[in-house]
């Protein structure tokens, strides 16, 4: 199963080897539990481990293999970030996709060797979503052949970029490029921020950390201001866009090619989110198979809480989603890598498809991941609320994904633009022009679903029902938009009046894609035992998902209420059928205790002993009487006693 999760036995077994290697190297382990550390201690500890990784990674992984590096980082550094998180996730991808060969020689090679540390500085205090209204300006000075970076007002301060605050000495900065008074929109520049030797901010740069956040606090998200700060013309990233010495602008082959670092993260984060969801479910499912509370049969001992149907309903559909997401994530990464290669040869034809797909997936997957993690926390009762479970940290990190790389409700609209265009083609009788991801929009629906007509309906029947729902909602939402426009609204006003419906269409389209990705993967599985378990999980998934969106199919009679009952019964049947495999389904992700960082979710299942040892190790328990008691509580009680006398 691990080979299914990690797209092949090769990487699955490399993960095991890497974990086994690290088990023998205590210097790579957390020196104490992260929840017991202050933010400063965590940053110091993370930097220590990062240095070790840099020194010894060749002994543990193949550093050219991104997935091996990812696993090494998960084991050693964990999810709370590290001082070079953005260096790997965005700085290097931005240089790879946007710097010319010459620029790559100069900077990318140094970045890969970790001679410099970089980040991606785009968001500002006043604007994150609307990139065309960023306020940092880069004005071209023809005489000196330099760009002058400037922060004209407080809202133009860069705000949020990870590792900008304290760690990075370079950034890929996004600023509005002005040449001879003309605004050429957001462009990307390579900008030195700190002295390479002293790490002091360079003259003209104001920089610092933005303070603690909900989670992800090892990352020093930062602020940055420029005071007429000059960089050479050749610091504009010029793989696709160029500015000649005389100020002539050479257009890229696609207007949004500069957005590639965002598309990179959106493509990869689907897998990252699946893994965080699987972390929380591993903890909650293991704990639920240890925790005994209450009886189902009063003549029998108390049961494991995992025997309760409500607990299964709380956890198992999310287990299915984690599998679905990791399968969809693998497809997204393949598409991203293909588009990256095609863009190199000047072929930008798939950029719009990739953008639409990743915008939808990013939004749906992060939202459902956060919901699933929060349910996993509640599934652990009181102990889920303790940081010993580590689920609150996992939630805090994962839910950030709903906001970063494009706020979810905004990104759903990006997919909606694509769907509306496709609906326009259907309306115009040009369905043959639809891309493969939306070809179903041009097909004709059956009048009713056949879901309960055979003893075990095939997945095709479910896919058809999801297609019917997504098609109906897309065409209806597009019709709403076109209707407002026909009545005289501008496209923008009509769009705003239709966005709730448009975003519903985007979600349904994306959920259909996820179901199809799951079906595609299960169909490929050769081993019959594995196929049976994955088929059960997929059956649980399609029934759960369909129930969740059934209103769309009930309203036009595509599904009848008796079919709905059938779907419910199928769901309950598969909850019970999956129960004996539940722990194995989470164990198959093969997370080591080190990677999971959860006292509650350890493989040994010694929950109570582990929790008690953890509590005793809490810094508050180092002494029996705290200074706060000596200083305040004792005098308070003493004066109360004295006044009584
Ligand atoms: C390995 C990594 C794994 C895990 C990562 C873990 C941790 C990292 C943690 C945090 C890092 C976080 C980093 C950040 O958050 S960086 C900042 C991210 N910021 C955003 O995402 C901003 C969101 N806003 C936008 O992307 C754009 O403003 C928006 C797309 C919403 C609108 O842009 P614009 O106004 O320029 O365009 P429109 O007029 O709306 O559209 C015109 C047209 O262009 C198409 N389009 C837009 N973007 C793209 C694209 N990237 N590729 C292709 N095409 C694109 C759009 O669809 C329109 O098309 P059409 O409808 O045909 O006109
Ligand atoms: C953990 C974390 C890490 C980050 N790391 C980085 C980084 O490394 N580099 C970087 O540059 N940035 C980073 N960011 C910033 C992040 O990319 C932005 O916060 C994000 O893109 C959202 O933009 P915003 O803050 O402007 O939200 P806003 O756009 O202000 O959103 C506020 C509300 O307005 C709504 N809204 C906005 N526009 C529209 C619209 N057109 N239609 C309908 N509703 C709308 C949104 O849906 C939302 O409900 C990070 C953020 C976080 C939380």
Q: Bound compounds, please?
A: ligand LTMAUQNL, flavin-adenine dinucleotide
Anisotropy-based shape: globular
Question: Rounded to an integer, what's the Rg over CA atoms?
Answer: 27 Å
Tally of structural domains: 3
Distance between the termini: 73 Å
CATH class of the largest domain: Mainly Alpha
Report the portion of residues in β strands. Answer: 5-15%
Tell me how many strands there are: 11
* Helical/strand content category: alpha+beta
Q: Please report the number of helical segments.
A: 21
Mean pLDDT across every amino acid position: 97
CATH superfamily of the largest domain: Butyryl-CoA Dehydrogenase, subunit A, domain 3
Q: What name is given to the CATH topology of the largest domain? A: Butyryl-CoA Dehydrogenase, subunit A, domain 3
Helical content (DSSP H or I, runs of 4+): 40-55%
Could you give a short account of the major beta sheet?
6 strands, mixed
What is the second-level CATH architecture of the largest domain? Up-down Bundle
GO molecular function, one term: FAD binding
Subcellular location: Peroxisome
Pathway: Lipid metabolism; peroxisomal fatty acid beta-oxidation
Cofactor: FAD
């Amino acid at each position: 199963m691990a080979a299914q999760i990690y797209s092949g036995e090769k990487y699955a077994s490399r993960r095991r080897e890497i974990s086994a290697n690290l088990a023998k190297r205590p210097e790579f382990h957390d020196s104490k539990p992260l929840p017991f550390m202050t933010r400063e201690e965590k940053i110091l500890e993370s930097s220590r481990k990062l240095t070790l990784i840099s020194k010894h990674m060749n002994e543990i992984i193949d550093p050219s293999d991104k997935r091996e590096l990812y696993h090494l980082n998960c084991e050693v550094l964990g999810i709370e970030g590290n001082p070079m998180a953005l260096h790997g996730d965005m700085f290097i991808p931005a240089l790879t996709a946007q710097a010319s060969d010459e620029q790559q020689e100069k900077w990318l090679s140094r970045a890969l060797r970790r001679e410099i540390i970089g980040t991606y500085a785009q968001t500002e205090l006043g604007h994150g979503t609307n990139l065309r209204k960023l306020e940092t300006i880069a004005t071209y000075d023809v005489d000196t052949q330099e760009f002058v970076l400037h922060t004209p007002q407080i809202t133009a301060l860069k705000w949020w970029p990870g590792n900008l605050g304290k760690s990075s000495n370079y950034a890929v900065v996004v600023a509005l490029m002005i040449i001879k008074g003309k605004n050429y929109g957001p462009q990307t520049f390579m900008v030195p921020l700190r002295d390479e030797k002293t790490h002091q901010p360079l003259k003209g740069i104001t920089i610092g950390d933005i303070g603690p956040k909900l989670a992800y606090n090892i990352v020093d998200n930062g602020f940055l201001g420029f005071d007429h700060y000059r960089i050479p013309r050749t610091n504009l990233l010029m793989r696709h866009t160029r500015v000649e010495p005389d100020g002539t602008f050479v257009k890229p082959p696609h207007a949004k090619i500069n957005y590639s670092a965002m598309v990179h993260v959106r493509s990869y984060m689907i897998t990252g989110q699946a893994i965080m969801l699987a972390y929380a479910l591993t903890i909650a499912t293991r704990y639920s198979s240890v925790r005994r509370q209450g009886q189902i049969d009063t003549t029998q001992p108390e049961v494991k809480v995992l025997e309760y149907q409500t607990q299964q309903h709380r956890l198992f559909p999310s287990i299915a989603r984690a599998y679905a997401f990791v399968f969809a994530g693998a497809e997204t990464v393949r598409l991203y890598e293909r588009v990256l290669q095609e863009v190199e040869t000047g072929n930008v034809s798939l950029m719009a498809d990739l953008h639409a797909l990743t915008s939808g997936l990013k939004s749906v997957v992060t939202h459902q991941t956060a919901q699933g993690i929060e349910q996993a926390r509640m599934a652990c009762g009181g102990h889920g609320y303790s940081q010993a479970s580590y689920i609150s940290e996992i939630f805090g990190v994962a839910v950030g994904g709903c906001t970063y790389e494009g706020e979810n409700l905004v990104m759903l609209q990006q997919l909606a633009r694509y769907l509306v265009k496709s609906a326009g083609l259907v309306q115009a009788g040009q369905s043959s022009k639809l891309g493969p991801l939306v070809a179903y929009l041009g097909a004709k629906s059956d009048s009713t679903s056949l879901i309960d007509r055979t003893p075990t309906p095939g997945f095709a029947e479910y896919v058809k029902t999801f297609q019917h729902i997504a098609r109906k909602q897309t065409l209806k939402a597009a019709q709403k938009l076109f209707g407002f426009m026909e009545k005289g609204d501008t496209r923008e006003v009509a769009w705003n009046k239709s966005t709730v419906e448009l975003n519903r269409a985007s979600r349904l389209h994306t959920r259909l894609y996820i179901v199809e990705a799951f079906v595609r993967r299960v169909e490929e599985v050769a081993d019959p035992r594995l196929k049976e378990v994955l088929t059960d999980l997929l059956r649980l998934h399609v029934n759960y998902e369909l129930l969740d969106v059934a209103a769309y199919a009930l309203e036009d009679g595509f599904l009848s209420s008796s079919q709905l009952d059938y779907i419910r019964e199928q769901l309950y049947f598969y909850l019970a059928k999956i129960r004996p495999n539940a722990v194995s389904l989470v164990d198959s992700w093969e997370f080591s205790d080190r990677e999971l960082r959860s006292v509650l979710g350890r493989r040994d299942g010694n929950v109570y002993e582990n929790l008690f040892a953890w509590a005793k190790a809490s810094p508050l328990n180092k002494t029996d009487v705290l200074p706060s008691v000596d200083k305040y509580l004792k005098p308070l009680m003493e004066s109360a006693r004295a006044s009584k006398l």
